[in-house]
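Hi V.,

You were right to ask for the full record rather than a summary. Here it is.
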Amino acid sequence: MKHIKIGLIGLGTIGTGVVSILIKNSRLIEDRVGIPIRLAKIVDLDIKRDRGIEIDKGILTTDAWEIINDPEINIVIELIGGYEPAKRFILEAMNNGKHVVTANKALLAKNGEEIFDMADRKRVAIGFEASVGGGIPIIRSLREGFVANNIESIYGIVNGTGNYILSKMTNEGGDFSDILKKAQERGYAEADPTLDIDGIDSAHKIIILALLAFGSKVSVEDVYTEGISNITPTDIIYAREFGYRIKLLAIAKRSGDEIDIRVHPTMIPQDNPISRVNGVFNAIRVRGDFVGENMLIGKGAGAFPTGSAVVGDIVEIARNIIKGGEGYRLPSRSYLPEKITDTKIKDISNITSEYYLRFSVLDRPGVLSKISGILGARSISIASVIQKGRRENEAVPLVIMTHSAVERDIQSALSEIDRLDVVLERSVLIRVENDERQ
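Predicted structure:
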């Protein structure tokens, strides 16, 4: 074999980054693979727009089937995103015996079972390092580096937009809506930021990580998902006073014979390294039964970090093709296909956590005792309280940190508390993750 031929579907931001890396580091990549990796065809709906890189116009086309049906192309890269036609392109490419590299986390979260089954059945490789964490090699770590371990938990920041907004609110002050607008102006947030700020993007990613870590099939509907749009500067200030910072975390843990998987704003201790990960960076923390704690930090998005992950998958598959005549070396899901299970998902109402609770109450005698009585009736123990300001018969914040409690008890208590005539607004709840409880 004189060279590996690849076809790229999608010449957007990430696709342009991939092409740039393949061109600029072509000699380095050849030195590490042994033979050249050549772009045989590039597909995009717009093949006339200048991307700022030199591309042979003879390899540009608007027809994806020119790649999928070309018998000389070894690896197909799908970077158009979305569900269709991306799914059809991937499945047909695999059916034609081609290996696939993709960054499409939404598609893998929703239709991963069908895609992975096809890859295993056709004995072709699917590389998806770029689907989670940008340039962070978390997929490769779970599939190979931590393979000797039972993974006990995996959690972290997997969405750069959400982390950028919360970091700005924490470090510089300001309201959520104002910082979101600035993030959009600077290109850190999409014009429609729903997937990022509502936690949906993070949910897609933790589904992929849970599959690799636990061998468990999880659907999007299984993941409790809560976004960051209701986080206020007030909560960030009180979090700091208690020694915490607020981050949007994606969390997956073994919990007996269940998987506890969720996405929501979370208070974590200021001495936890993840609390100090700011801006568009991602951070993922993995605990294995023998390896202990490991943490990976890096840029979670962007043309070059994500493009680097895509090219890393291309190189891995190319090496396997050269050495063994096929690119398929690992089960696509880390576990053997027959070992993938329908593990029970722990309902959010049954989780145990510490909680930050903020109430807007009238400044009257006996208010704290009423609230603490309702909490105490459900075996919810108070760890600490902050009540500032004296404005008799006016609204003041009352903030409580609890010891470990069951979510359904907390929700029941808040429902009763919110009906008190001294409570003026709906209560605020933020879950707390402490290292000693991991």
